[in-house]
Amino acid sequence: MMKYVFIISALLISCVDSNPKKKIVTNFGNTQGTTYSIKYISSHGINYQNDIDSILRAVDLSLSTYINESIISKINRNESVKIDSMFTRVFEMALKIATETNGSFDPTIAPLVNFWGFGYEEISNKNQKKIVNLMQSVGYKKISIKDGHIIKEHPNTQIDFNAIAQGFTVDLVGEHLQQLGITNYMIEIGGELKCSGLNADNKPWRIGIDKPSEEIQKERYQAIIEVSNKAIASSGNYRHYKVDEKTGMKYAHTINPKTGVPLQTNLLGVTVLTESCMEADALATAFMVMGIETSKQYLNKHPEIDALFIYSNSKGEWLQYQTEGFENVSVYQSM
Fold first, then answer.
1. Is 93 contained in some domain?
2. Element containing residue 230 per DSSP (H, E)
3. How many Å from the N-terminal Cα to the C-terminal Cα in the chain?
4. Which member of 68, 234, 251, 326 has the greatest number of CB atoms within 10 A?
5. Which CATH number fits the domain that encloses residue 140?
């Protein structure tokens, strides 16, 4: 999933209020093929970088298709392996969102992701017949959990959690910080975020949302929001695509699980705001597939979820739709 949420606020001071025992700590690095940045207010300035890196490694060993010995890689090779608690949590949320969105989000999309060149391997000589064959193994109803193992109805079914794993990791790091007694933090992994409490200025965290353009513009933000105790995730195709060397055709990275082909849509980007980053992550992808009108219907049934949609009309002009809750947390919008 291409992320287009960027942090625009920065914690520039080393202490909070007048209490010198509480300091801002920043951890950053690389994970899951992207970067992470975590800021939190820590008693006595205790740095939990080692804890965070341990969590990130554990997630990779469970959910990363780029690690041969991970649980998900073994499942995709049809090896017998017992899933862990992390895999179970992500699997259950993935199937929940898949069911609620009628398959617009589907964790069994791995063969199609690889086919179009957005996964850990690419299938050459693309043609419709290959897509039809691959679609036989795709479908969230073809997998289940039994006695701690993944059961497949089709042996070629493969799982891909890339559209939900980063959100889950954000949630997991947040849970760990909460257990340590840290309640003021901002966690960002690959553009997916969770904000808790207040920043160093005792104000809500300020987050900027990029305009959906291929290049970052000078006036880059579509909106700026202020949030506390919320997670934010987004999806868009405008900076993440492949170009066929033979035909020159661009392929968007979001694949429609129902057709097996990349999206052709006027929806440029979606940002989802809710409590669970894992849920927001999956929904952002689902909404891209569902389109604006069907997504509106979903949101009407789920008032606890807010969203911003950026799309283009027949003239190529940018328009936007947002829920009331999203508008209420906005401090700036370019439209």
1. yes
2. strand 230-236
3. 25
4. 234
5. 1.10.3980.10
- Domain assignment present for residue 38? The answer is no
Q: How many domains does the chain have?
A: 1
In a domain, 18, yes or no: no
**Distance, CA of 163 to CA of 112 (rounded, Å):** 14
Q: Domain span at residue 125?
A: 74-152
Average pLDDT, the chain: 87
Q: What is the pTM of this model?
A: 0.89
Report the pLDDT value the prediction gives residue 213, as an integer from 0 to 100. Answer: 65
d(CA 46, CA 15) in angstroms, rounded, equals 13
**Residue 289 to residue 236: CA distance in whole angstroms:** 11
Per-residue pLDDT band at 215 (split at 50, 70, 90): low
pLDDT tens-digit profile of 95-104?
999 999 999 9
Average pLDDT rounded to a whole number, residues 301-328: 93
String of DSSP letters for 101-166: TTTSS-TT-HHHHHHTT-SSS---S--HHHHHHHHTT--GGGEEEETTEEEESSTT-----TTTHH
- Residue 283 has which token pair? 């929904």
pLDDT at 325 over 80: yes
Residue 238, pLDDT above cutoff 60: no
d(Cα 318, Cα 267) in Å, to the nearest integer? Answer: 10
